[in-house]
Here is the input.
Amino acid sequence: MSNSGKHFLDLFFNPRSVAVVGASHNMMTANYFLASNLVNLGYPGKIYPVNPNSTEILGLKSYPDLKSIEGEVDLVVISIPARRIPDIIRDCIGKKVKGIVITAGGFSETGSGGRGLQDEMKQLLDGSGIRVIGPNALSPLNSTLNFIIGFGPVLKLNKGKLSFIFQSGLYQPRLNYLVSEMHLNINKLVDLGNKMDINEVDALEYFGQDESTGVIAIHLESIAGDGRRFLKVLKETTRKKPVIILKSGRTEAGAKMASSHTGAIVKSSDTVYDAALKQAGAIRAQGLDEFFDLAKIFEYYPSLENNRVVISCFSGGEGVIATDFSQFNGLRLAEPTSESRQRLRPFFPPWEVDINPFDTGVTGQFASSDVTTAFIDTMSNDPNVDCMAIQIGSQPYLSPDGAKESSEKFVKLCQDVIRRGKPISAWAFDPRIFGVMINMLEAERIPFYPSAERAVRALGALYRYGVLKKRE
Amino acid sequence: MSNSGKHFLDLFFNPRSVAVVGASHNMMTANYFLASNLVNLGYPGKIYPVNPNSTEILGLKSYPDLKSIEGEVDLVVISIPARRIPDIIRDCIGKKVKGIVITAGGFSETGSGGRGLQDEMKQLLDGSGIRVIGPNALSPLNSTLNFIIGFGPVLKLNKGKLSFIFQSGLYQPRLNYLVSEMHLNINKLVDLGNKMDINEVDALEYFGQDESTGVIAIHLESIAGDGRRFLKVLKETTRKKPVIILKSGRTEAGAKMASSHTGAIVKSSDTVYDAALKQAGAIRAQGLDEFFDLAKIFEYYPSLENNRVVISCFSGGEGVIATDFSQFNGLRLAEPTSESRQRLRPFFPPWEVDINPFDTGVTGQFASSDVTTAFIDTMSNDPNVDCMAIQIGSQPYLSPDGAKESSEKFVKLCQDVIRRGKPISAWAFDPRIFGVMINMLEAERIPFYPSAERAVRALGALYRYGVLKKRE
Here is the structure.
């Protein structure tokens, strides 16, 4: 856990010790979770609760102030009212801590009074060498170290290679949902808040260098400075790994609101952002659903060089919708070889049907075994096919073998296909009845989405990145 | 249950007796569910299973053929291989049945052979007065009568005023999901399949006249004839009730596919459809997610005359996204009165924050009671506010009272607001932990969506319909 020779941000993600100023033993307060998550998830470093009204918090010795702590303190998390924070900053300087995270709000986002307080902190810190995340920032997170600063209970962290940059705490209350329900494998996460010191350029640069980060997802509302440095670092980073960006505050009303809650000034128009982000090789997401959808698929797959998709659906109507949205998202229908048609012939009805999209609803009436499985297996060997969108579910309520057994067979097959470099994106007509299979798929890095539109949109993004990479 | 004086389609939804040709006692076949759903859901009419290999199915007397049935038969459902169907049609004519539903495929969608078979049926039926849904059609459904023809187990039907027109069976496997998870209150549903006789114009006309249908949602792939009659009936219908249309087969590849699976020819370009549908007053949905989202909100609320929305969020960042998508969807941020600001003052932090979007994450730090509740109550009385988008969840894990009690209070308040004519659309950061509240909300006709984007998109559609209605 040494930080020597590393990017200066590394210490925020790999602190050997952390002091929590404002830690509480009262479960009814958000501050309780600042230390409880560290204890419950098993963060291996030292935890120092700081609270003048307690001697023990969560079984840990509690300190009245920072100076009373015997050992060294790498990181200090400050979660107390704004006006009392300058005093804590002085203590931090005295204690020679390396980094500070200020979760508290009440600074530049509140107008001139708070801005004065933020300026006061800046002056205090000037020349101290101490770097600051925030204020108004709920972070960081490093799943490798079971390290997370948060205001609610965090149940578990999937370890993966997806790293997030946020500019607000919007991720916080849905973190458990993202991990357990959306199966996001988060490596690191930072919420920058008011960006008094550390900003998105620093975070992007760090995640770009970070070997355990394979994909970066950024929710931006504003860009520090004139944006040129951000775009330069972004361009360098997208050469190495995919970067997904959700830029909000896109409408006039949204931009005004963005400015009021983080104190940042949102200057450029949305079209300017759009062109600049694209030129820098970033994948832009339109909304929060798409942002998390794309973050997931890029954590699983690198990119797509070619865009020929095969689709397997449960009804012809669903196939038409999946086809429409494949084309909207830059994919085109693959034309499988005659060998593939030949192999799937036994599953066809007596009349000729189109092999792509493959309508398992029709073909299933003419073959007793699993048509979806046969389809995937055939297409995995077809040189005209680059990726697959699969509506899972071979009438499980009609199948005599258990859901678990057939799920295992299906997932094994999908793994095979992925090993051959063909991404699969899946959806189902009713996610509730495929829970077993969905969990298995996600565990094996096969992304599941709630609808055909979202499944093919995610695949399309892989190809968008493939094209962006080639252009450089 | 008399059909006299009613639209000819009424008998398909209110049959006094139904014969199921191809009914099966084998649970491993799709045909099993044709009769089992009727029995399990409690369809009150007569059910006559027809299968030459059985004497009893599901405890019901089974008949070798239609002629052996003693009583009158209103409706015959035919689910056997295509080539044997003309003989059954002859039996139907002999038995003087009133309507036929052909669920079986293998007709015009299979090319010239199947088309010949379909023409043969047409000639047989000519002059008989018997009307036909299908072939290749899984329908109808009438929840008032617990009447449903389907290939999978249907667990329950919520009775409501939403009626669907489909052109394929894509709704079928997700019916339980639509009812139980998406809380759609379906009144009637028809899948038209190959539209050999009855088409979307007939269905639209019938649902337009049907008093128990308050909103119509149509998934179209093709339009019968030159489309003029459809647009005329559509225009008449949208004057009376909202009509949501998902038109797929929008891309070249999608259109080709649509033609192959229903045998219909898709002629016009997507932009032509777009303009024509809009002119006729229909609300067009882009994909299946939006289609069901809008179907739900129109079943709950009629329309919106004005578009001033207030937003309550759990974080400023979420508020920015909700604001962006409100504007994308035709809404604008309401400017609450100074009285409202005054009433909410105790919930504000010491500094000035924008009242819309209302950031409960910030305000919650400065007030112990439920800020969301105070916000909704205040806005319900504000004359500058037309509708509300609410991210539910007042830190339930920090709340000492039980989830059920606070949910009940919240839902009661929402009901009050809706009574004052202000639609509410809700979402949550983690639907799993708000299950109790979501079910209560939906039971009281307050729509819940999985994200801010989708919640405000649905509200925006209400206003789109309000504008369309005024224009006429």
